[in-house]
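Let us work through a complete example step by step.
Step 1: write down the sequence.
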Amino acid sequence: MEFFNVVSLSRARELLAGFWPPGTETVRVGLLESYGCLLAQGVAAPEDLPPFARATVDGYAVRAADTFGASEALPALLRVTGEVVIGSAPGGTVAPGTAWRIPTGGMLPPGADAVVMVEHTEEIDHELLGVTRPVAPGENVMGRGEDVPAGSPVLPPGRRLRAEDAGVLAALGITEVDVSRRWRVAIVSTGDEIVAPGEKPGRGRVRDVNSCTLYGLVAATGAVPRLCGTVRDDRASLRAVLERACAGGDMVLVSGGSSVGTRDVVLGVAREMGRLLFHGLAVRPGKPTAAVAVDRSLLVVLPGHPVSALVVYLLLVEPLLLYGGYPWAERVAEFPVRAAITRSTRSAPGREDFVRVRVYGAGGRLLADPVLGKSGAIGTMVRSNGLAWIPPEKEGVEAGEEVPVRLLGPVTSDGEFCQPIGPENRTTFRRQNSPSKEG
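Step 2: predict the structure and record it as C-alpha cells.
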C-alpha cells in the first residue's frame, strides 16, 4: 500500500474494526470502580423495582372510587384512620370511606389504589378529610415493578457504564459487575521541534500540545492513558519507544511524522514493526493519518498539527475506545444536530470536511459560525463548540444552509466568540476555505 493512497473515513473504520478490540480479559469490579467501563455481560433485574407500591406525592392514600365526583363545591368526605411512616410497612388497611396520611416514597397500604395530593384536600377536623378533586386508580402511585420488573433486561453487554447505570444497579442490590478490562493507551509525541510543556522553547521549537490533549480525551472515555514523552526524529530512539509502548498497551497514539516529508520517520518505523492498515484519510483536516497493527496493539499515527490530531481522534479513535468496535452507524448518531451555517464554505469533492464552528441559538434556530484558523491553531478548538460535517459529494455549503453538527460543548444563546467577516479578514476567510495541502 503506497503512502497517501487515501481511504474514506468509513473504510478506515472498517479496517480498524476488523482488528479491534484486542483480546482483553473480563474482570469483576465494584460499582464505584465501574464508571466508564464496558459491561462484559448483560444484567437482568433480580427483583422488582420498586419492590412495593409507593406514593409519588405527599397526600392521602385512598380508594379511588371513594373520590369519584368530588369537587371544590362538593368535596368527598373521608375519615382519616391511619398514617404511613416512611421506611415502615403500614400496620393496617384502608377501608371504604377512609384515608391514610402518606409521605412521598411511603409504602401504599393494603386497600388503597391511589393517592390524593395534599393540595387537593382540606382537613375539616383531625379525623375528617374533604377531597376536592377525584383521582383515578393508580394516580400518584408507582406500582411494584413499574420501573424495572423482575427478570427484565436492565443493561446490555457492551454498554459504557454511566452514573445512572450504577444507580439502577445499586437500587437492585447489585454491587459488582463483570466488565472488560479498561483499554491501555500509550501516547507519544514526535518531532525535533517539540519540547515538554514545562520547558521554555528555544527558537524554532514549540511546546508539546498533543500529549496533553490526547491524554484528556483518552481519560474521558474510561481508558487508561499513559504518557511516553516526546521523541526526536531518530529511527533508533523512536523504534525503542514505540516497541515499549506497544508492549504495554492495547493502543498507541503517535502524533507527528505521518506525512511524506524527508524528516517524517514515524510511519517508516511503524511499518517495519507491523502491518499497515491504511495511510491517508479522505478528510480535512487529518489527511496524513495512518494505522498499523503491531502484534496485539493498534498503532495510530495522527497528524502533528494539534487540530488535525484532535479531529481525527474524535472521528476515528474515540469510537473504538467508547464502543469497543461495535458498528458506529448502528449505535451512535455522530452528527445529530442541524444548524444553519453563517458563511459560505467551500470543500473539495471526494473529501469529507469537518469545519470548526461556534453553535449558538438566535431567533428560535441554531446557527453555526465557522471558526477560522489553520490546523496548527489549537485556540480555534477552544473557540469552537462543534464540528460541522460537509459530505464528500458536496463542493461546499452556502450561507444559511443547514449542516449536520456534532456538539463538543454547551450551546450559548448568543454569538460569543463568533467573529463576523469584515473587509479586513475576507482574504483570510477565502484562503482558509479554499482547497489546500494542509493536514
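Step 3: interpret the result. The longest strand covers residues 352-362.
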